[in-house]
């Protein structure tokens, strides 16, 4: 039996890589220094695994920005617009130019697109393919990292994005061709890489092929067979591992087990049932890597459960053919639980249930020892200790709250149902709200200036007391209210100055959430996030936002919109408990948000927005699972929104608005008003709503807040006209694409003044 990892976090135990990259971009350190820091992180990661006793240690899992971009540079798929940089600049500068765009020396080149890595919160850089795309070995990063590992006395296992997965991750930049047809052109480059690796003494190669666990068409399946047969022919002696993760193999089971490779890795955290299926048909010359330790979450492994998988596999195929591993790369886990030293932030009782990357490495090694013929006494003690901890979590009063469970159990369909249908609600709302045609509003946040962030950090450090902090925030809120009144916005917001982050802010006030000090996970490039940990039953003990909304409303005769984050988004952007279904945790959050919505209404807030930007990204990877997810996700939203009177207007907001395939579900959410992102697509995204004859009100964003560029009134008016052409005017709102938190005040002022003018003109012309 062997142990291995699919990959290790690379941001560094103290986010050294983030800091070094940002210093390099700011011109504060030289490239050599950056490269040295990167090399040391990789080295440090290898040492951790070596000392723990991992058999097969990965290399090329390190990256200065993103592993997919690394592969793009490796195979020389450099888009035309970077040619000048490619010929004049160093490899690392070209690399960062592709990742981040390049504005210098009279050049202005856009970055490559970025998108989510499967259903994680990690973003990769999307490869761009042309019809006549050529590939050639351009960067020798993979080989260099292997050589580095050898020099430290490790015969590492290079981790390479599989050829098919690499192509499938990319985007065709021209019409009339299929990126799959590029596979044959890519084979020679893979062969070049493998030749070099073999020459330098590599034994094992890991190809990441997560697409094998997704829905595939026939052509893709055939290409998989073809390509791997071809590669195998050239390298009879290398040992190939195919890594699948994030889903089960399902209908690709026979394809995956028939590929001419040596080891197949499967994710038994996401899809435990596939073990039996795989063992049933596994050919005698294929070994199996069991992904038993969760690479996507922060909970301690349940040894007994993992051992049952391992023992089953050993019984069927023998221990020589079994590998023990985490479910996926540990890229998605924070670095080291030992650096959580502040007991006030993370209590020891909760901490004992957790494991970060470094601890997961140890778990893998321990599992192998436990699965051996005669585990020694100390290892058996570890098993007993693990049982105790797992049991303590099952019964802990920190986690389990009977009131919450009773409340969830007594929730009925009624809770997810507004009192009357939209048509009737609309009338009551109009009577009270008296809004004009094309009402204007914003999505919630106003610029979080340096000062605002500074106040917060001073408050946290105790340099401002809560009274002083409160006064400053109130001043900022009042200024924002006055300013919105002055330029004539119809529905105002308080500006969200009191919030650090739209999930953390609520998590900090809800029971059942814990936070870490250093639980950073890479989101993209140098950006890391520190997701809250939902460890127990969630409930709200006190109002969370009423204070600020009530204050803002007291300042003005205009309507102020209450601002909340929805249950699905809170769930999606946290580490969640693994002892109950996500749907149940989501329902608990929904009930807590519902309490808040009801309290806002009681406080006189008549318009309440429940943001759900993450509803779409929560979609399962397999289409067959979509409806089940959408059913509970939509229900959770409805539970949170349905406690109010007809006359109270519920808004929701979503950032990514490609809703063609789920428009029915979006309509089922039954928000009175939905604001969406539309301007970058020139209102094209609105077509899904138009074709569906979406019945409720919509605010298609008329300008892109992601850019500092100030749009003109004419531009926005044009977009509004475009919207009017497909959606009845009585249904339309006018607003930006998203919150204004990242913008500066001067841009914001100019843009919103023009936006209000556009709305006025549109209604005059109507
Ligand atoms: N209300 C939030 C804001 O304006 C919404 C942010 C989001 O959609 N991501 O900041
Ligand atoms: Zn948004």
Summarize the structure.
By secondary structure, the chain is α/β, with parallel strands linked by helices.
Describe the protein in words.
Belongs to the vitamin-B12 independent methionine synthase family. The active site is at residue 706. Zn(2+) binds at residues 653, 655, 677, 738. Residues 3-316 form the Cobalamin-independent methionine synthase MetE N-terminal domain. The structure is a single chain. The strands form 7 sheets. The chain has an 8-stranded parallel sheet with strand order 1-14-13-12-11-10-8-2. The chain has a 6-stranded parallel sheet with strand order 15-20-21-22-23-24. The relative contact order is 0.08. The protein is globular and about 75 Å long. The chain is 43% helix and 13% strand. The chain has 766 residues and is α/β, with parallel strands linked by helices. The model has no long low-confidence stretch (mean pLDDT 97). The protein binds glutamine (GLN) and zinc ion. Residues 443, 613, 653, 655, 738-739 line the site of zinc ion.
Q: What is the average per-residue confidence, as pLDDT, rounded to a whole number?
A: 97
Number of beta strands: 24
Radius of gyration: 27 Å
- The number of distinct helices, counting runs of at least 4 residues, comes to 28
Strand order of the largest sheet: 1-14-13-12-11-10-8-2
pLDDT < 50 runs, ≥5 residues: none
Q: Give the % helix.
A: 40-55%
Largest sheet: 8 strands, parallel
The hetero compounds bound to this protein are: glutamine, zinc ion
Oligomerization category of the chains in this entry = single chain
Cα end-to-end separation? 74 Å
Strand-residue proportion: 5-15%
- The general outline is globular
Structural class, by secondary structure, is alpha/beta
